[in-house]
Amino acid sequence: TSDPAFSVIEIDMVNDVPVFDGNGAVPGVDAVYVYEEGQGAMPLFTFDSIVTDDDDTIVDSVALVASPLPDYPREYMSVNTSGTGIVALKPDNNTLVLQGPDTKANFTTVLRTMTYTNDIVFPDRPNGTSRVVTATISDGRNASTTTTTVHFRAINDPAFVDLNGESAGQDIQVFFTEELEPILVVSPNMTLYESDNLTLVSALAWMQPVLDGDAEALFVNTSLETTMSTFYDNV
Predict the structure, then answer these.
(1) C-alpha 113: how far from its chain's center?
(2) Mean of the pLDDT values across residues 102-130?
């Protein structure tokens, strides 16, 4: 028999990319949420989202970019880094950087606290454009991205009338002197808010008590708006 022959196999290790699975047990890594106006802070990732990296136990950073943010500064991302070595940095209005290095476990914990908030509420209305938050996770050598898409669900807010215009509150007090001309019962700067619709179906104004019968009445001028009709009943 011949002497044995040997082959030497050298394994060239490849640095696998770190991955942030933003939706946890759901297939894929991306997430989609619906934000209802006025709901407050909403998590951007699921409670079981997780950072993985087959080669490293340490993550260098995660950069989160939200685009667009048409309602800034009244919309923003927030995060809680307490108890970790991660520092939250904000290089611009759209970006939040979680700077390590720190463990995969700590980055997982911190990313699970990420929230989106839009503070615009009635009588205003948030911009309904969908926002996309891109999270780029890096181990210092390789990187990968995860996205969360935030869609908006509008609430049909009630129409709102501010009778006193720029003054505090919304009500107004006026004084009528007997035997003089009719008076305005609203401010010349009265404002009507309707954040969800371009048109209104109706408006109702009433006065009580009506002590002098037909001698006192409410009147409105609709001559500038030909599609509007009025009805008055002093009973």
Answers:
(1) 16
(2) 94
Q: Residue 66, Cβ neighbours under 10 Å: how many?
A: 21
Quick one: how far is CA 182 from the chain centroid?
Answer: 47
CA 27-22-73 angle, 5° bins: 140
| Distance, CA of 144 to chain centre | 26
Q: What angle do CA 95, 155, 228 make, to 5 degrees?
A: 125
How confident is the model over 10-63, as pLDDT tens digits? Answer: 877 677 899 999 999 999 999 999 999 989 999 999 999 999 999 899 999 999
Q: Which contiguous run of DSSP H or E holds residue 89?
A: strand 87-92
As given in the structure block, the two tokens for residue 187 are 């401010």
pLDDT of 188 reads 85
Query: DSSP alpha helices (H): ranges in the chain?
Result: 104-111
The residue among 88, 79, 76 whose CA lies nearest residue 131 is: 76
Q: How many Cβ atoms sit within 10 Å of the Cβ of residue 88?
A: 15
* Average pLDDT for 186-190: 87
The residue that leads in pLDDT, 230 or 65, is 65
Stretch 184-190: mean pLDDT:
88
Residue 129 · residue 149 · CB < 8 Å: no
| Mean pLDDT along residues 138-159 | 91
**Amino acid code (one letter) for 222:** T
**Percent of the chain residues topping a pLDDT of 70:** 97
Burial of residue 17 (CB within 10 Å: 0-12, 13-18, 19+) is middle
- Answer for the pair 206, 220: CB distance below 8 angstroms, yes or no: no
- pLDDT for residue 123: 75
